[in-house]
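Troubleshooting entry. Yesterday's outputs looked truncated, so today I'm pasting the complete records for two proteins to confirm everything comes through intact. If either block looks cut off, that's the bug. Protein one:
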Amino acid sequence: GLGAVYKIEHFFFFKQKTAYEISACLVGSEMCIRDRFRGIRNHFVKFLKSEEFKEEDLGRAQLGLSHQMSRGVIADNVNRQDKHIIQSSALLEIVDKNLNTFCMRVKEWFSWHFPELTKIVSDNYTLIRIINLVQNRENLSDEMIDQLDEATGDRDLSQQVLDAAKMSMGQELSDVDTASIHDFSIKILSQYKYREELHEYLKDRMTNVAPNLTSLVGENVGSRLISKAGSLTNLAKFPASTIQILGAEKALFRALKTRGNTPKYGLLYNSSFITKAGPKDKGKISRCLANKCAIAARLDNFLILPTTKFGDKLKGQVEERLKFLATGEEMNKNEDIMKEVMDELKQENLYTYSQPELKTKKKKKKSSKAAATEEDGAPEDQLLKKKKKKAVQADEEEAEVEEPVKKKKKKTAVEA
């Protein structure tokens, strides 16, 4: 009986422990544990004493186990939605580069036929739409003025294109060249359409994953910060000084080597706040913006119910900082602004209390309920009895204090 109970207890003890913890309990030294596990891995095939199981099978089993563990890590990753943001941001940059190269190629190609068009129209998208519409400058006439207005969006610009086509000095194009340029322009327009769809997808993802960071710096800069950091969790771990120079690592190390001035901003240079600031205030604004980005990233990473209210308030603080540097207006304190947001969330029932706060609230409710029941629910007779008992106890305590302690006299030898 006792032996069976001892075995059952040890079974449950070892069942709740891992192999490393069991060996640590039995052996005690980490070096011994590592040596033992290393020996088991090296001589595992010999320990089995089976001719069917070989070392190749052991390698396959280890590979399958590692694959299964990696699948479990990816499946259990809470922030795996960051990966979609990283990939879509990288793809958006590649699409932008390809569109720029394609537009430059079409400009050079079509400028042999209509060189004045590239000087009149500076926007690439508008230029590609005109080339797709016109195909050849000989097709331009006063009847196409409405179609040109749809392509350009400006009446004066379309009139300039018509006037330049009448006086153009370019060479003529054959039908084969015109068809090839037209096909290429159609593909470029389809790339522009895909770019818009991809940008909308990235915007939706950023509003769901990092709403405060998106409302502060926008989806483009926010997605680049997340992709550069690796994930939203890593970005939340970064201090504000690291976020400020994120993307300018080469300039930083060059400045450290040459003992020159370190860069003031990296990816944050693409933000609208940096462009609005004056040349002397760009470093101050980038430091302030990096601080707010660090707060927004931590809020997005740890908030249970995501909201954009914190990001809107942080954006207002950066704008106040810009006004302060320009005109010297007073700024609101960060504590007051955060309290306003917390009060708004509590009114809208979007604030979730932590466990210590819930415990304190429960205690306060219980104490208030008990006091209310004692005052309202108790009858007058019981209250009078309680008062009389308290008065009697107070009188007894006073009597005990007033009575002197009587000491016994010692008998002397004469009295004895």
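Protein two, checking that the full record survives here as well:
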Amino acid sequence: RRFSPPVNIPQVQALENRLKEELVALGILEPAESKAEPEEDEILAELQQKQAELSAVVEYNGQQRQALLSLARAEMGRQDIRKRLQEVDAEVMEWLRRFTANRQKKKSASRKEKEAAWKALEQREALCQRLL
């Protein structure tokens, strides 16, 4: 919770300059040497340079983050396809076991079973194509 109004920096600096001038005029403070301002300017220039460098790094990091996010989403999609492919592979293997067992019993598969097996094979092929 804020009890005081926000500080306006230019107003504070102007007030500080006026106070210094008054104190110098009264003889309480000695006049400031001309050396102080160039140091502040050097510091300010250094801060501005570092801020510009930091800004460039922030921009680069944002681009890299977006690229990684895109790659991660693509990889998650591929993982989903691989998971579904494993499920379909298990289904195809089950049909193969059934057909092998039927062959040993010299029994033929029904049309419905054959269609279901073909459907599983087609799903598997479609998933494999999506991974490429």
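Both blocks look complete. Sanity check on protein two: The chain has a mean pLDDT of 87.
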